[in-house]
Every structure is written in C-alpha cells, then in structure tokens.
Amino acid sequence: MKPFAFTRASNSQTAIQAVIKDQAAKFIAGGTNLVDLMKEDVEQPNHLVDINRLALTRIEEHNGGLRLGALARNSDTANHRLVRERFPLVSQAILSGASAQLRNAATNGGNLMQRTRCYYFYDVAMPCNKRQPGSGCGALEGFNRMHAILGASTQCIAVHPSDMCVALMALDAVIQVEGPEGSRSIPFAEFHRLPGDTPQLDTNLKHGELITAIDLPAAASAFSAHSYYLKIRDRASYAFALVSIAAALEVQNGTIKQARLALGGVAHKPWRAPEAEAVLNGAPLNQETFRRAATAALKKAQGYKYNSFKVELGRRGIVRALTIAAGEGRTA
Amino acid sequence: MSERPANVGKPVSRVDGPLKVTGRARYSAEFKTENIAHGMLVMSTIASGRIKSIDTKAAERAPGVLGVITHLNAPRLNFPERTVGPNRVVDDQVGPWVGRSLPVLQSDTIYFNGQPIGIVVSETLEQAEYAATLVEVTYEERPHATSLEAEISRAFPPQEGLMKNSPFGRVADYSRGDPEALSKAEVTSDQTYTIPIEHHNPLELLSTIAQWTGNKLTVHDKTQWVPNTQDHLAMVFNIPVADVHVISQFVGGAFGSALRPWSHPVVAAIAARAFRRPVKLVAMRKQMFTSHGHRPYTVQRVALGASKDGKLTAIVHEGYGQTSLYEENTEALLDATRFLYASPNCITKYRLVRGNIQTPIYMRAPGESSGVFALDSAMDELAYKLKIDPLEFRIRNHSDKDPESGLPWSSKSLLECYRQGAERFGWSRRKMEPRSLRDGRYLVGMGMSSGTYPTLRTPASARARIFEDGTAVVQSSASDIGPGTWTTMKIVGAEALALNLDRVRSELGDSTLPRSGVQGNSMLTASLGSAVLEAGHAARAKVFELVRNDARSPLNGATADQVVFADGRISLKSDPSRGETYADILRRHNLDSIEATVDSSPGDELSKYSMHVFVAQFAEVHIDEELGVWRVARFVTGCGAGRIINERTATTQLTGAVVGGIGQAFTEETVMDHRMGRIVNANLAEYHVPVNADIHNLEAFFVEEVDDKINPLGAKGIGEIGYVGVSSAIANAVFNATGKRIRKLPITLDKLI
User: What is the C-alpha separation between B115 and B324, in angstroms, rounded?
Assistant: First the structure.
C-alpha cells in the first residue's frame, strides 16, 4: 500500500476543502472497499480525509419519505424500524450483501461508491481499462463469468457490486450531495455511469463532492406490501450476485397498479428495466405477465463466453422475484 | 446418538482449546522477537521466460528499507536434483521423487506466474509491502502452457511409476485380467470427469520467523512436519541438521499446503542472514495461490463394464494430472480404483502433463478424492443403466479381499458402514427415477459413494517422562494442524503410563524433541501414537525396574507379569493393596523424573495385509429447479477406522472433511486465464469455500471395528477419509434430483439451469 496522509474532518466543508486541494485525495468512511483496493494497489490516494466524525448518521422522516444519512451504517439502516416498514426492499437488499461484520462498518454513502469486483480490475498485473485507461479489457475475452450482460462497452464489461443500490435504483432514491460549489440532488438513475469510453469513471460525482444523504421518496412506500430482493449467487452467503433482482409492485384488485424492477450483477451500474415495468404496469397479476416482463427486461442482453447463462438466469430470477413480491400463492 | 462402540474412545475436549480461543496459542508469525525486520516477496507477473532486468533502486530508497534480495545478490544455495532409486537424495521427503525444489532466487528463470523472485526487507511490514511494489522487473517472455487440456498430447508416464518395488511410486500402467473385458461387457459406461485446480486456503498464511545465531538457524515456521523443514533448511544452507532449530507448535489449518517447506523459510533465512536481523515473512492471501502447491487439475476417463445382473467385469481408469516444469508431482489418483470394487479385469493408466505452474501438492484426500469422484460417479451412472439401486450395486461388487494384491484386509467394515449409513440416512426413501422427489421449488435428490484411504505408518519417536509429583509429559516434534494431536497424544500417553488424563500433558512442535513423522497422509496418530504408547510403556517399566530389587518396596522381588499399572501406581495382581505410586518410588530414589525415548517403526504388516480405512457417504441435496441454487440438506458419513482415540475430535475430523468436500463439489475452483497463465481469483471473495450458511445437517459415526494388524494402537488415520466420497455422493445426488449428470466440478448453478 502506498503511503498516504490521513486527516480527520470535523465538518463537511473542511472535508470537502481538504479533498479538493489534491486530485489524489479521497474521503474515507467505513473503508470496507477503499482500504481493500488500497491493499491491492488499485487505489493509491495521497491523502485520506476521514469523514466518520461528520454528523451524517441520522435516519429520519423527510418530506413523507425517509432521509438516510450518508454515514449511517448499513446494518443500522437495514434494521431501522422505518426502513423495514416502509422500504423493506432496501432492508432486504442490504442484508443480502457482504457479511454482518462488513455491514457494521460500511456506510450508506460508501455503499454507493463501491467499485467493481472484476478480477482484472483487482490485479494490477492484468490489463484493465477501468484501472488504467488504454491498457485493454482483460475480461472481454477472458474469464467473464461475473460480468455484464447489459450496457457494456468494448472498453469494459465490469458490473457494479452493490446490492443496496439495486433497491435504491428501483425505488427512485435521490442522492444529496455537498460540494465546493454548494449542494445538489442527483436522481439515483443518474448517479452511476455506463462504461462507454470512460470506464474509469464509475459515477457522476465530481472530485470533492461529498454524499450527505440518500432520500427514499414518499411515493416509493407504495410498494412496501409487495417487494422482494432476490440475490442469486454461488453460495448461500458472502458472495457477490451473479444476478440480483429488486422487484416492487403496487397491487390493486389483482392488477398491477405500478411496478418497479431493477437488476444487479448485470451491468456497470444498477440496472433499471423500464421495458419490463411498462409490461407490468396495469397488467394482470399473473405468471404470464411476469414472464413477459422478464423477456422485455433482458431483450437487449448479450452474454460473453462464460456468462451467457446469466441471460436465462436473469429471466427466471425476475419471474421468481415478482412471484414472491406479489405474495406466494397469489399468482397462478 | 446411539451407543458408542467399544472401539470408540469417549469424547475429550481439546486441551489447546482454551489457549486458542483466548489467543494464547502462538502461531508461527506471532512470536515476539527483538529487533525483527519484515519481509515481503516480489512475485513474477509472467508465466514463462527470464528476468531481463530487475531494478531495486527505488525500493531500496523507500523509507525503512534494509535492502532487497533477488537472484542477482542471493547466496547460491543447494537445491539438489532428487533421484529415483536406492541412493535417493532427499532434501524434502514430501516433495516429488523426481525433480528438485523450486530453486528460489537462484537464477533468472521464470517457471510460473506468481513465482517468488525477490524479497524486500524493511523495519515494518507496511514499508516492506509498499517497497515491494517499487521493484521494477522487465522480462524476456517465452510461450507458456498452463492448460492441461491444451497440452494433453504431451502427456508422459511418471518416472517414479517405472521404478520397481517402490512403496509409493505411482504405477504408470497397470492391468489385471482380460485387457479386452470392456468390449465384451454386457452394459458399459464410458465418460470423462474433470476436476479444476483447488487451493487449500487455510486460515493461517504461510509464515516464518528466521533468525541466525552465528551459523545456527532458528525458525518459527508454519509446517505440517517440523523435521522435514529442519532437514530441508540444513541441506539448502549446507549446515548440520543439528544447527537448525524449527518450532511449530500450532498450525491454523493446512490441509496439505504446509507439508513441504516451500520458499518461505528459505527466503526468510536468506534475508535474516543478509541483514543480520531476525526476519518475519508472511504470505499475503493472494500470494498463497502460488507460494504453495494446489490440488492438480485432472482429467479422467472411467469406463466400466458389468454383467446385466450387476457384477463388474471391467474397469478402465485413465488419469491425467498436471505438474510443474521442474518436478513430477504424482498422487493416488487411480490407486483406489484397483481395489475398491471387485472386478477381475482392471486397467489403470496414469500420465502427467507439464505446465507453467507451481508444483501441485497433496490437498486433503489427495488423489483418492479426485479418483473416487470419477469412479463413484461412473458407478452411479452404470447403476442407472443397470436399473439397480446404486447402494445395492456397490454391495454386489464389494471386494472381500484386495483384488490388486490378493492380500486379506487387515480389517474392513464397509458393508457395515453401508448398512448403518443407509439406515441413519433413510436411503429407503430414495426413488430411483430422477426428479421424483420435491420440496416446494426444490428438487430433492439422494446419492451415495464409497470412499477409501490407505492406512499407513511412518517411523516416529516419542519420549515419555514421569515426574516425582506423579505427573507426566509425552513429547515429540510433531505439529498439530488442527485434528487435535495435542489431545490424542495426551490420551494415549495417559493410557500407556497408566495415569489419569489430568496428570499427563503433551508437548509438541519443536525439533529439539524426539523426531516425529509427518502430520499428513492420515498417518500421524498411528505413527506417533504408537511411539507414545511404546514410550509410555517403557517409562513405566523403568519405574518398575527401580523397585524390583528394592528392599524398601512392597513390590520387591515381583516380576513384570506379576504387577499391574493403574492410576499412577504399581501393585501386585495378587494383592492390589501391595503396591506404591510412581511418585513414591521416584522420591525414594531421589529422582526428579524418569524417562524413556522410543523410536517406533512399522513392521512387515504391509506385506501381509491390505490396510485401508473405508467410508460410506450419503448426501441429500435440494436443487432449485429454475435457479439452480443448491443446498446440501443432509450428509451422513459412516466410517470403519479401527480404534478411535477421541470420539469428539475424530467426529469433527469427518464432518470438517465433509465441509471441505462440499466445497469441492459445489464451489471451489482456481481459475487460470490461460492467455496470461495467471490465476484470476486469487482471493477469498472469488475463490469460494463453503460458508456457514451452506452447511446444514452433517452426521458422522464410527462403526465397530477392531484391527490388531495395523499398528500397536489399532487406530487407522482419519484425516482424509471423510473427504474422499463427498463430491461423488453429491454429484450422484444432484443427478437423482435433476437428471443432470455433472462430470466437471464444481457443480455451479449455471450447470444446473
């Protein structure tokens, strides 16, 4: 690990000012991913600005929805009564990620900033356009079992590793950000990026911008009775998703009033499936609807040598997640 | 739990348990050493070629760095070429018979990706780790070969297998009976089975602290065989064996990975000598994937033929295993095939394929588990073709004596393991037709397998010492990698010395103690236990010697056959009131202690009996039909292993092995990117071992089995046996559940949807 300076900020402005001074400075909160990447020499910050003392840990009601502090720990968030009651999808997604120990350390803001688990990204002896632009993509023609089937580019086929973010994507969360030029809100769908020709950029955050909160809008609590996060992985716990599905339905008299569907483990960012939602919205609550939605969601999917199974797995997972979200036994 | 058979010793808690859970048990890297420096390895990033240049200037200038050692400035050491034959040169008794240990830092040659090519030594670990990233290496690359399949046309018979009369030499070609039997068989199955590279991934990393005092070397080293590390370092550094002191009291799991002294102790000792400081060298997790060996990639063809009534008439088993460029690693891939089932006709063919890889090494149940996965998968396939219950098929082909050697078994309880295992498991609920049982969305399948492992014994020495306070210690240089040797040797010692368990302690893991055999190949309990038993008997006999002609003793004039030893006391058989304690005797003779050291060796039992431990294993798997998600709902292991010293640690040996086997079956695979010849998942996030949530109901039991032929203890080794039939039982259960026959491990969910 490259030596670095370490300072502790007492408020967000001093934190931002400290980072803005140095292009190679970074905020550190839980550190569960950043420190890991530093140990592998993938991240080599000159300066870490510790934001753990900032007053951003609250989870509170906000405009009829919830505001999750950026520094609230993942475990505290997942187990918070209001999160569990109104946004159980978020709670489920968080609890299906990592391990209890990691969730105790990891923060909500940090969860959004996780970087891919691509093998080639993690090994500095391998080519990787995300880590070293222009060096090539090791995964494209390499071992790409965990890689993207949607939205990839010839530069990068990595996937975003977060579970929580898939739920946030489905529920139209809004990210609150503070920066050197003031505050702004970023709709969740615009927070992460597709790789395109700039796979080194994971998000649209500017250098020095600090996530302060994640807002779960009041409207998204309409799904609290019918939502489910399904994570399909290689072992029962502590593995990244091969495919994950955040499914949320609002059901009225056997009809889907509105639906949200997002996928994890399939793209460079948490993947929203508006084509599937269009199929689901207003449709009868049955298996046929779910199958059509699954087909629509993965219509543009493209597999590579080792991961083409994800396309069919994704379809089946979508049907399963929707079935469970609808309520077991409620759809024939 | 049903009643414990008489051959099974009652459960005793681990004596080192409190030390381990309170952190007082010190592992090799944990010894506080004054003035210690820290090393970090630099590893190659190409798979084949030579180092063109290696620039260490930036690393040397980095804060805290004492220096960098590479092939350019390392001392020339002695890595002898091992030879096959009577004058075999041995620098490492576990290393392959043919080849030589990786000559680390001896030349610019790159044999594999991730090869140690330098060490940076610094005041702190962090400084060493950082400075290691500053070493600039340029290479002259040559084409590499890491794929066994791509190189299979270059397969060759292992040289050691061409030796005559070698006890362990893997036979390249074997045939008995009619070589054309397969083509004449009424029903056949002929398939290919593949097992990827697997890594042991123990919790404890390879770690060494090396320190020189003049020309004498002391190392704390993670090892499964203290004297082997001692011998190796003595030969490599060309110093007397007595000048090397190796300490390894506790080992945090190894599974075979620490059988050999790899580069770590050598490089640490080089650095310690160069910088005149004690040096600590610990592998990073990612370095573990190339710092030591692995279960080799294997491809196997198994063809079986049987008569319609379910009698095997032909077995053909061909196995290809990968090895490195500089050593011929072999394993018992085909050994079990020649005797596990009765078939008059049997052909085995063993070939090696070289690759730019670290030399493979035994990984729990080496060879046997890979071979039995193929063999018992094939048995299951043939049973389906014959429409015979797979358990019944195995019973019909039970080998009543060893069909390879013709020798009688020293003992064999496999039929009883089948019977009791099937009963406990509820085998009768199984349906022959795949996809017949369901539990909601899950298809339910049941499968079983046999398993076997050799019962061997090596020379071992032990000392027993009785103290004047009536306590005693038993000692040996053996390491305990986790099976509970500290506890079992105490139990055996107490029995041999006729002392209560709480009066005896064991002392292990130091080369100054009597020379132990290896903790590996399921041999240590039998080897060392026999030595401890004999040492204990010898020590108490010495106490008796003191009183035989001692007028002050109530035992004066008694002969050995007239006395009994019990509870630390010697008394007359005819009148137990006439006797005295060891403590009284020693005190009266003004002795602090009395001791006996015994060198114990196997006899000629191997030439008279075929000696093996057997197991029957039963798996119930649940497979989500749509998503391929798997669950091992239940797993039952029945084992006949002769005398069981300690039921608790023995049972956890079996269930722990089953956990490992579940990994082999469903999750474990080291993936090589053959374009670069480099492992892509060298970490515990992407190399999946089973987690707690994957493990459900595991049951293991021992059947009644008494064996007085194998060794004085009557105990068969059980370190590996619990692993052998797991992946085959599971693959067979997966077929029963889904109708899908998976012949390439691991059975990841993509293979099931």
Answer: 12
Query: Is the overall model pTM greater than 0.95, yes or no?
Result: yes
pLDDT along chain B (753 residues), means of 10: 81 95 96 97 98 98 98 96 70 87 98 98 98 98 98 94 64 95 98 98 98 98 97 96 97 96 97 98 98 98 98 98 96 97 98 98 97 98 98 98 97 98 98 97 98 96 98 97 95 98 97 95 95 98 95 95 97 96 97 98 96 98 98 98 97 98 98 98 97 98 97 97 98 98 98 97
A257 touches chain B (CB under 8 A): no
Cα B35 to Cα B32, B123, B219, B280, B390, distances in angstroms? 9, 9, 15, 11, 63
Q: Is the ipTM of this structure higher than 0.95?
A: yes
A65 near B CB under 8 A: no
Q: Residue B610 corresponds to which tokens in the numbers above?
A: 């075929």
Written as one string, the DSSP assignment of B715-733 is B---TTHHHHTHHHHHHHH
Buried/exposed code over B449-473 (b: 16+ C-beta within 10 A; e: otherwise) = bbbbbbbbbbebbbbbbbbbebbbb
pLDDT of B1: 46
pLDDT (0 to 100) of residue A264: 98
B344 C-beta neighbours (distance < 10 Å), count: 14
Please name the member of B130, B629, B666 whose beta carbon is closest to the beta carbon of A2: B130
Chain B interface residues facing chain A, Cβ-Cβ under 8 Å? 45, 63, 126, 129-130, 133, 286, 626-629, 631, 666-667, 671, 673, 675-676, 678, 680-683, 685-686, 688, 690-694, 748-750, 753
- Is A313's CB within 8 Å of B750's CB? yes
Asked if the bond preceding B746 is cis, omega within 30° of 0, the reply is yes
Kindly report the number of other CB atoms within 10 A of residue A292's CB atom: 15
Q: How far apart are CA B120 and CA B281, in angstroms?
A: 10
Summarize pLDDT for A177-187 with one digit per residue, the tens: 999 999 999 99
Q: Which residue from B599, B477, B529 is spatially nearest to B226, judged by alpha carbons? A: B477
For chain A, list residues with pLDDT below 50: 332
Q: First CA to last CA across chain B, in angstroms? A: 38
Q: How far, in Å, CA of A71 to CA of A56, rounded?
A: 5
The whole-angstrom distance between B629's CA and the closest CA on chain A is 7
Which among B606, B602, B610, B604 is positioned nearest to B412, based on CA atoms? B610
Residue B137's alpha-carbon distances to A48, B59, B108, B128, B260, in angstroms, are: 30, 12, 11, 17, 28
For B298, list phi and psi in degrees, rounded to 5: -135, 145
Element (H, E) at A56: none
